[in-house]
Structure formats: structure tokens, C-alpha cells
Fold this protein.
Amino acid sequence: MAVCIIYHSETGNTRAVAERLAAMVGGDLLAVRDLAGYSKVGMYLKGAPRAMRGEAAVIEPATIVVSGYETVVVGTPVWARSPTPAVNAVINALAGIEGKAAVVFCTSGGMPGKTLETMTAMLAGRGADVRGAVAFTVRDVQKGEGIESLVDLVRRSEKELVVQ
């Protein structure tokens, strides 16, 4: 089973979840960088309003080819109850996502808002088959809790693909 775990992380929480997931299910990790290079204050003053508007950032890498993977996982921090502009750009940058199983996750201080629904709709709009979504709080990340739900979604996707 080929799994690609793509994430954007500014403070390290989303990266921690992505790394734990990769350690448990295998696959390739891809960290995406927002070229805006926000400072801690800039994330709130500039990034959050852009996230609320659903804007896409300029990211590196600019194109993400996932055609060689069976399952694609996308993770984001929550900014203003929304995916980050970098993750909006990630979803736009996915080449070969059509028909792929996808799973999404987010990390937040406790109020994910419509983040997971937004990501699910965006991926479905690109032709992905979104199999599920998991929200993590900062406390979950710090305690290492909740990862099993995400692992189960990815493994369930693997089993369903084998049966098809």
C-alpha cells in the first residue's frame, strides 16, 4: 500500500501527527512550506484572514504528484476555523488525485470549525474519494492521543482498495 502524507505545519503540532502516522502506517511524508514565511504574529494578522477567505498560498513544492499512491493523507493546522492557505494550495496542487482514497486531519487549540468539511469538499471536488477526517487538539498532540483513529482510517482505506 502506497501512502503519501502531505502536511503544512507552522508550530510543529501538525508535523508531530504526520510523523506519528507515518511511523505507524509507513508511507512517504511531504512537508509543504508556505513561501509567505509568516512570523508568529503574522500567522494571526495576515494568515488567518487569508484562511477565512479560502485563499491559496504560494507553496513549495508548487506541484505534488500523487499518481503513484493509493491513499493520500492531508493535514493542516486550523487558522480562523479554516484550513491554512498553504493547505488550500496543496489541494489545488495535487496532480493525479482523481479516484484516489484520501483522509484528512487537522490540529487546533480546540475549535476546528469547518476545517475538515472544507478540506473534504475541496478534495471531493478534485475527484478524490475522501474516506474520513480526524481533528486533534493541541492537548491530544502533546499526550500522543487520538492517532489510532487516523491510523484506522488509513488502514481501512488500504483494505477497501485491496477488495476492489
Summary: The chain has a mean pLDDT of 93.
